[in-house]
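Supplementary Methods S3. Input chains for the assembly prediction are listed below.
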Amino acid sequence: VTPDALHTCTLASLSRAIESRDVSPVEVAEACLRRIERLDRTLNAFITVTADRALAAARRAEQEIAAGRRRGPLHGVPIALKDLVATAGVRTTCGSRILRDWVPAEDAAVVQRLHDAGAVILGKLNMSEFAYAAIHADYGPPRNPWNPERFTGGSSSGSAAAVAAGLCFGATGTDTGGSIRSPAAHCGIVGLKPTYGLVSRAGIVPLAWSLDHVGPMARTVEDAAILLDAMAGFDPADPTSTPAAPDSGARPPLDASVPAVRSARLGAVGGPLADATSPEVAARVRDAVRVLAPLVAAVEDVSLPMLEDMVAAWWTICLVEASAYHQQTLAERAQDFGPIVRERLEAGLVIPGVQYVQAQRVRRAAVLEFDRLLGRVDLLVLPATFAEAPPIAAADAVHASDALRRRIVPMAPFNLLGLPAVSVPCGFTDAGLPVGLQIAGRRGEDRLVLAAAHLYEQAAGWWTRRPPVDGVSQTSA
Amino acid sequence: VSADPREGGTGTPATGGPPVNGPAVRALVTAAMRLSGVEPDEETLARVLPLVQAALADGPRLRRAAAAPLEPLAHPGRPGRTGEGA
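Predicted structure tokens for the full assembly:
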């Protein structure tokens, strides 16, 4: 692979090229930095590029690999971090004016794990202000690589844009109500919200503690699984952390889980949720179910129980927890929040405590309902988003709180329940914008979810399409 | 009668009584923001009131849908029996 074509590699294929020493980590890092320099003036995916640190890490990786000390599949691979993940010595803005100049003293746990895996970190990625689904005017919106006049989705907006455009080979995202899956769907990449507690949140600025998840974003399911392997693991610094299953990510290869997928019963979600989906997205999801049907044991139509109740519970919990976290800052610097985030934070101050507790009780009832549903089927398939990426020109309408409440419906239930859910590309709308298929499963069964997504991805082949950021559409190496 | 306008309600609490909207919500928002050290101005109130009113309208739905009375809640810092995390 020539340096100019490196961006067409997947993370996994690049990793193999580095392992076989067909390409050096320094060459790869330099190629990524050149690509960022060339394309990110348009895409606006990065808030901070850490070129010197990346090149130093790439040189270390090159020396270690040459000395026979390869750490694993991420060693020497360039990735980037959503800018709410604390990075020692590198500013961490959370896409906000409030933290514009914050330079943490320590790395977040997940950053430490990625460093330990030998990843080369290129910088920090643009995002919605404090992950609350509205971009702050100080940073401006990242542009969708498939059409720069369209949103990326959020809040892990820069993560999705950077991965889709080949500026990096993977990224971290966080997901409180769809913030990994929505931008993954809109930008045509893979995004996994893992089981609650699988990836430590220590050192990550929260939006809502009991709904926040950290997960991987990458071009393929295999790439996301490789990242998850490095990111997941018990961390005593996160009180909700749980031990990772030994085979929760890419190891052993996802193909080893194909028999489990082939014996799985698939629940194709219909009912009110399907009724609210745009015709084009609904058609792509139906096509995807047709591709999946011969790959699994059975498909049956299901409806998500307690959907409206769960959305109400999610909204109450998110409003209250976010306002609790920002309460002090709101009292001192309210004017420095963007208007939409400020509006939500101020509204959260008003919700009665009793309503918050009732929302948690609803959550418990929903967990029991889903335990029953997932006793009948092994996996759920549904659209990741109701519609294609909206125009950036419609920013006010897109970011309005009532629009957000509608947008989270297909995704937020899985945050409330803590279940693993992945978005995998499943085609395009007539406007040429990507559509995401969401696959969810039982808690702790991240691997089955990924394996099903992998099987679909390989059968459908959408993953080979690349956005036209270089002037022409491309396919992957 | 539901307070949820999406269910055709009119802001009347499920138990009856006067509507929880308009001046009542405005007073509630003003008091809650002051308790948190934020002095609301007219522009802020105009933005926040609709959102608060919509959020409060979820109250009756949540009360009705809550788990069975004897179902214990997990400690928020530890995953529950089935691991949902809250």
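Chain B is about 40% helix and 0% strand. The interface with chain A takes residues 28-29, 32-33, 35-38, 40, 44, 47-48, 51-52, 54-56, 58-59, 61-63, 65-68, 71, 73-74, 76-80, 82-86 of chain B (CB under 8 Å).
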